[in-house]
Amino acid sequence: MGARSKARKRALDVLYEADLRGTDARATLQERLAQADPPVAAYAVELVEGVVAHRELIDKVLRRVSVDWSLERMPPVDRNVLRLGTFELIWADDVDDAVAIDEAVELAATLSTDESSRFVNGVLGRVLELRSEVLALDQADLAGPEEVDPEEVGLEDVDGAPGLGGQDAPADELVGEHVRSGVVDHGE
């Protein structure tokens, strides 16, 4: 396992622990850094801090594209793998899209249910299709609420109600039929 793969696993450990304990992931990260057993790589720190910094938008996007699954209903490992993968797809410019998705799929296959790897692959494929809209919305948040109307970037009701999903979920209108039907091929 490569250094970045290990860092992703360590970041997932921190996010998962914080999620289960209902604590702030940054506080959990600080505890793990202080213990240093096992050590926390700089890339793991970057991933946890990135997920925390963008968590609200990440969760809105995941709610929008997770067909038939609310974020709260997902297994905690899957939820946090998706948060990690979404962060890498949207904000980690130095990580190839296929690598980000493959790494997330591998974490899900190793640490979660038999169906998790297909689910993670499909959801992250939808996230990838929305990247430009998500970045536009993120920039709008940084610029101020008056600068960009969320409807202009296609994410006007991105958070929806918890548990909303299925064939008629708003995300279907954004990503199209070809990615809703199953596993998305992301190339190499």
Could you characterize the architecture of this molecule?
With 188 residues, the chain is mostly helical. It folds into two domains: 1-53; 54-188, N-utilizing Substance Protein B Homolog, Chain A. It has ten helices and no strands. It has helices at residues 3-21, 25-35, 42-53, 55-65, 76-91, 97-111, 116-129, 131-143, 170-175, 177-180. Helix 1 crosses helix 5, helix 4 crosses helix 5 (76-91) and helix 5 (76-91) runs antiparallel to helix 6. The two termini are 19 Å apart.
Short description:
The chain is built from 10 helices and no strands.
The largest sheet, given as strand count, sense and whether it forms a barrel, is: none
* Number of individual domains: 2
As a percent range, the share of helical residues equals 55-70%
Per CATH, what is the topology of the largest domain? N-utilizing Substance Protein B Homolog, Chain A
- Which structural class do you get from the secondary structure elements? mainly alpha
**Form type:** globular
Mean of residue pLDDT values: 82
Order of helices and strands: HHHHHHHHHH
CATH architecture of the largest domain: Orthogonal Bundle
Residue stretches low in confidence (pLDDT < 50, at least 5 long) are 156-188
- Rg calculated over all Cα atoms: 16 Å
What is the rounded distance between the termini?
A: 19 Å
Topology of helices and strands:
Elements: H1 3-21, H2 25-35, H3 42-53, H4 55-65, H5 76-91, H6 97-111, H7 116-129, H8 131-143, H9 170-175, H10 177-180
Helix pairs in contact: 1-2, 1-3, 1-5, 3-5, 4-5, 5-6, 5-7, 6-7
Features:
single chain; 188 residues; mainly alpha; N-utilizing Substance Protein B Homolog, Chain A; 2 domains; 10 helices; 64% helix; disordered C terminus
